[in-house]
Specification:
2 copies of one chain form a homodimer. The first copy, chain A, has 386 residues and is α/β, with parallel strands linked by helices. Helices cover 33% and strands 24% of the residues of chain A. In chain A, strand 14 (318-327) and strand 15 form a beta hairpin. Chains A and B meet through helix 6, strand 11 and helix 11 of A and helix 6, strand 11 and helix 11 of B.
Chain lengths: 386, 386
């Protein structure tokens, strides 16, 4: 498939692409990757980017080239896709799915595969599967550092007990402690994000210290989210970070102040297909199947429907008030606050939409159209199969 | 790919499947297909099912076998996928995308391909492309029968003018009038749905009459949605209907009273992956990437988060109050109204979730696990590529 893309004889321009299409601005992407790699270096931690955002081996390779150490994934299908593409060190940062232990063991034969454990049931099943197959599986202990979604409570005696059992289990290599402070996505200011990041760090380092003092060796402490990384001041005691969204950012991150408009690397190119006389909207060919139904920022004042429209086909500036105001499965309804903003749109016009949530939007497409300005320079497949 | 599935040597049970998986109950599907085919026959109209719901040639063939005349799709990729699978009469019920005329003409060479026009710009571009290529393309005129999303206003003089130009355009075969009364999805009772259906019918038949009286021959009148079809009493003057969701139904249709619980054919099988002490929820491996972020019924009183949990692995009955209460990209948070409903769930348990919106959920998967009761009898690929 890769070869076929390379053989395409002609470069095209954004204005010539079929729609809907997923555009990836290569210059912005490379800037984002370099900036996060530099930040991790400055903070003295390894970077293990979350590939759930892009699902794309080409981008994973750019991240490794920029200094990342291994990658993170959210599903076993992503892990397999990256292993197939030659990635040999992958963390599956999701509570172990007991129904898929056979596949876990098969992957652990091929690559350094690191899974996530946060219950005695998962530890027992993993240990038994590893010993049965004679292969060693790496495992992180997932810790709840305040998100309260999954992970052990680091203050509870049971957490210490589970860590000890993980460290002692035959067939399992205990990698250390892993957490995701997902509440950083709901923080409303840089100060709040910095506070989330510091609480995440402090909880992890304190727990690691208790474990070490009780004789359990903690090889690694893994934290991270894009919003927390945007504001964190110290990562003392942490060994690696796992942000993902920073490769692309999106409208949610822009609205929250995590990034600037020209840091957003992924947009959806769409066509106006209907503009009826008197209608206060135009219809575009980007609905839920292109943008996802992610509602965007928590704060209603910051919401721009299902994604704001960008000005022109090359820029990064938002139109004053034009956005995808509503959608159905394949239809997007683009409206403006003033009638004249809609009035100038005609059937056949192309628009660029900044998605609310780039990770979910990417998951709706089979490939990126890689662009520099208005020029299409490449196509990269998205491994979205599950 | 098909062959590979057929060669799978062993049947399995739902309780043995890897998760997340998309389950399709074949008995329920066949009953739904037969019931809608019988209803269309009784109403004296042809049935052209909307394949956007299932994206699956196997199901399209079952629909044709049950008496359907051709199929409907929502994207050009769906049209191409069904043409590749041998379907020779396909309507693309979406306003023509001018950026894709080359592909339209290529498809029209291979099959009877019917597109949708609702603007002078689209008519001109289509006619020019057809004449340039020497191929005839069929076209419906899309009419707005009250949904106010796209389509010409049938009361406006411009609509009559566009119909006449469509009927006279060289290279274009005018198939007649097409509409989708999508407002039927927001009707709150059978009476409201019946009223929507009757207004849809009346508007279309009146416009067709005006066209005929002014000398424009109207070959067909195409209407339809699943909610409207559930309540419609007469389709006099209509020639075909295009419901889609009826193949599967979903929680939205159930909550609206369009179907019963045991009419719902598609569910998501998921595993409990986390149940921390003291948590008011468990985490399952079905989040936005499995269920979509469709928020469900308009009416807040009817909402059940991102989908209710079914009782047991074979049944169709909803658990009293257990549902996916929240989600992130790969995580679903299942909670109940009473603590004991959550307390009995353990890591490794499998649950079946009834999706809010089956069409969007199906679009997240690569294949159906076709089941009869708890037995897995087949796997059918989903052509979700765009």
């Amino acid at each position: 498939m890769r070869r076929q893309f390379r053989l395409m004889p002609h470069r095209r321009f954004v204005g010539d692409l079929p729609t809907p299409a997923l555009l990836l601005d290569r210059d912005v992407l490379e800037r984002n990757l370099a900036a996060m790699a530099a930040k991790a270096r400055a903070l003295g931690v390894a970077l293990r980017p979350h590939a759930k955002t892009h699902k794309c081996p080409e981008i994973g390779r750019l991240q490794l080239a920029a200094g990342a150490r291994g990658i993170t994934v959210a599903t076993l299908a992503e892990a397999a896709a990256f292993a197939d593409a030659g990635f040999d060190d992958v963390t599956w940062a999701f509570p172990l799915v007991l129904a898929r232990l056979e596949e876990v063991v098969a992957l652990a034969r091929r690559i350094t595969f690191r899974v996530t454990v946060e219950s005695a049931a998962a530890l027992e099943a993993l240990g038994a599967a590893a010993r049965r197959s004679g292969v060693e599986v790496h495992a992180w202990l997932e810790v709840d550092s305040g998100h309260h979604r999954s992970g052990v409570d680091p203050e509870a005696p049971a957490a210490l007990d589970l860590a000890r059992r993980l460290a002692e289990a035959r067939g399992v290599v205990f990698d250390g402690l892993l957490t995701h402070a997902g509440q950083s996505y709901h923080a409303r200011s840089r100060e709040e994000r910095a506070a989330v990041a510091e609480r995440e760090r402090a909880a992890m380092v304190a727990f690691a210290g208790r474990l070490e003092r009780s004789g359990v060796r903690v090889r690694g402490v893994s934290v991270g989210s894009t919003p927390a990384m945007s504001a964190v001041r110290s990562l003392e005691g942490v060994t690696e970070v796992r942000p993902g969204n920073y490769a692309f950012y999106d409208y949610m991150q822009l609205a929250a102040g995590v990034c600037a408009g020209d840091d957003c690397a992924v947009t959806v190119l769409t066509s106006v297909v209907s503009h009826q006389a008197g209608a206060d909207h135009v219809v575009v060919d980007a609905g839920a199947l292109a943008l996802s139904k992610d509602p965007g920022p928590d704060d209603p004042a910051l919401r721009r429907g299902f994604g704001p429209v960008l000005r022109g086909l090359a820029g990064h500036e938002l139109e004053r008030a034009l956005a995808v105001r509503g959608m159905s499965q394949e239809h997007g309804m683009v409206g403006g606050e003033r009638a004249e903003e809609v009035a100038r749109l005609a059937v056949g016009d192309r628009l660029r939409i900044l998605p609310n949530h780039s990770c979910l939007t990417v998951a709706m497409f089979d490939e990126y159209q890689v662009v520099r300005g208005e020029e299409v320079v490449d196509r990269w497949p998205i491994r979205r199969t599950r």
